[in-house]
Amino acid sequence: MDALSSQANIQGYKAVLIAAEASSKLFPMMMTAAGTIVPARVLIIGAGVAGLHAIATARRLGAVVQAYDVRPAVKDQVESLGAKFVELKLDSKTSEGAGGYARQMDEEFYRQQRELMGQVVQDSDVVISTAAVPWGKATVLITKDMVQRMRPQSIIVDLAAESGGNCELTRAGETVSADGVTILGPVNLASSVPHHASQMYARNVAAFLLHMVKDKTLRIDEADPIVRDTLLTHRGEVVSGRVRDMLGMPARSPAGAAGGGS
């Protein structure tokens, strides 16, 4: 049922292909008649579904891959795909929120993070950033100053472009050139692979609908966490706490929440 994850697989895969095409360097090491070609160095920021698929794709293309995530728990996943996990000296014990996603941290944490990450970014030929916070604005992890310190012809692919971008210079849907560095802010990348994106999304939706059909009858059970957390309106009432908050509505009463509205 997880449409976010199914589409994120495509985004991570396609981000690496975009980066490889835009890069002035070949990703793999090659032994040629003209000498040995050193492999490209790729940094993946964020080891969620998109980030992990980006790691796997970049490794298949032969790049030397490093990955960073604020959640120490993903280190094993990163290393299982053949990448080096970048460890920064930060207190990140509370960095993992509900559902295993990264949670929003305070500005001082991000300031220290940017300071420590600067050298890793500077040494990379390609940076692919996938660090999104659910329901919030993307955190700036790559500052203008960090971009200025990168080597000319380096590439940044910012998959968080639609929610503001992980790079300070990102512009959604545009390609930006700054100090010799190319910053790409692709949007709706999944639509660029329409056959499989549609196939996976259709299966997600079908699984979700079938989950709510019992004995050929649609049953809206607010006690079911899957239904409860995706339900926007029911019986003429806005039942989603998040949507009610956005609309400036008061929280539902416990009685109303338990009964699914009236």
Tell me what you see in this structure.
With 262 residues, the protein is α/β, with parallel strands linked by helices. It folds into two domains: 3-192, NAD(P)-binding Rossmann-like Domain (Rossmann fold), CATH 3.40.50; 213-262, no CATH class. The chain is built from nine helices and 13 strands. α1 packs antiparallel against α6 (194-211).
Summarize the structure in short.
The chain is an alpha/beta fold and 262 residues long. The protein is built from nine helices and 13 strands. It has two domains: 3-192, NAD(P)-binding Rossmann-like Domain (Rossmann fold, 3-Layer(aba) Sandwich); 213-262, no CATH class.
Topology:
Layout (H helix, E strand, L loop, with lengths): L2 H20 L7 E3 L2 E3 L3 E5 L3 H12 L3 E5 L6 H6 L3 E2 L21 H16 L3 E4 L14 H5 L6 E4 L16 E4 L2 E4 L9 H18 L1 E2 L2 E2 L6 H6 L2 E2 L2 E2 L2 H6 L7 H6 L3
Helix pairs in contact: 1-2, 1-6
Q: Which descriptors apply to this entry?
A:
single chain, 262 residues, alpha/beta, Rossmann fold, 2 domains, seven-stranded mixed sheet, two-stranded antiparallel sheet, globular
